Structures are given as C-alpha cells and as structure tokens.
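subagent[fold] <- orchestrator: predict structure for attached chain, return tokens only, no commentary.
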Amino acid sequence: MKEVLLKTKGLSKSFSNDGTLQHVLKNIDLELYRGDFTVIMGASGAGKSTLLYALSGMDTPSLGTVTFGDKVISGLSPDELAVFRREHCGFVFQQIYLIDGMSVMDNILSAGLLVNKDKKALVHYAKELLKAVDISEETQKKFPAQLSGGEAQRAGIVRALINSPELLFADEPTGALNSKTGLDVLDTLTRFNGQGQSVVMVTHDMRSARRGNRILYLKDGAVLGECNLGIYKHGDAERHNKLSGFLAEMGW
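subagent[fold] -> orchestrator:
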C-alpha cells in the first residue's frame, strides 16, 4: 500500500470579485502518495494552479484542511508556512525565477544555505544535481541572461531540489519552452521521479501529462475523475490512447 504524503479534507477556496463570491475550489477530499508523479489537468479556470498553491502552503484555503504527513499545514502562520515550504517543498514554475545578479551555482546555493549551513556538502550535492541535468561546470558560472530557456529551467529544477524536498510542485514547467527544450525538462522531471522524487504537476499539455502515473481532472473547482497510467515508458502508444480516452470522457 502506498504511503499517503499529503491529504486534504473539505478543501475549498473562494474569492470576492466586485462583491460576488467566486468558489474556485469546492470541498476537495484528496490523497497524494509518496513517489507518485501526479498530474493535475483541466480547462482554463478550473482551479488547477489554485489547488497547487493550496496543497503547497503558498495559499491558505477558505475552508477545510491540508495535512502533510502528520502535520496540518493549513492552520500555520505565514512565517511557519515559509519555513515549512523551505524544508519540505520544491517549486518549479512556468516563469523561471532565477536571480539575475547571481551565477547558476550561486542561485542554487542561495536556496540551499537557507536550510543546510554545511556549504562544502551543499556545493558537492549541487554539482551532482547539475551534472544529472547536463549543466556543465562552465555553464554553472554563467548568469541567467546567458542561459538558454532549457538550461534556465533545468537550473530551476536543481534549485527546487537542492533541499531534498519531500514533494516537488511544478506549475506548467514547459509552458514557455519550445518543443525540444520542453521535452528535455520533462525527461529531467521523469528521471528524478524514477529515483523516488514525489512530483505534483499542473499542465494543460497532453505530452507533459503522459509523464504522470496518476492524472487528476479538475472541473469547476472539483475533482471530476482520475486516471492511473502506471510507470512512464517512452513510446508507449497505449498510454497515449488511455489518457486520450480519459480526457474525452472528462469533456476536455
């Protein structure tokens, strides 16, 4: 039986828009499992990113609870949530948030030193991760403006992984990349997941979604259905057909 890493109970999120209450997430009960590559899909406005932010503690729900392990994080203060995210979560976004005035290596170390004060060990681990995503020692010395889109996003993934997060959250990580570069980023995420890294990814892209072993489909703020694809295998046509059939049933 899989270990539950994160769960929600009655998770709801509402916003006031010109005096009208908009219910973005509606009473979601959900379990995420350690080691899974979970993909959240749905039409624009379905609440995908709002759900990801609520799961990760980047946003607080209006109602309900989010429990990470045995800790209810939805009741933590902003400062407590910041510490929690730093120690337990990693984040990769469509927009690549590297600090312009720092080299690739310094960008990664600046995140790692917030948790691990052993700089020598941290540098060693950063080099291992950078090597794993094909970022050379020469490129590690470059500044973000000198990187290609793929290099910058892979560096962002390393920064997200430097503190060995229990859960990596990715919000449209290939959305601003071309086809080849996006594929490299997906290969990187797939490889780390194969090594045991738990991943939750929001995407609207079929090619990206196929990398997940579990697909959740969100509609009007609620989980309408899910599809279990098993472990990703390159060139698996049946995987594509199964996901396509599922999405057609969901009305995608």
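orchestrator: received. Logging for downstream: Strands lie at 4-17, 20-33, 37-41, 63-68, 71-72, 89-93, 167-171, 198-202, 214-219, 222-228. Residues 4-250 form a domain with the Rossmann fold fold (CATH 3.40.50.300).
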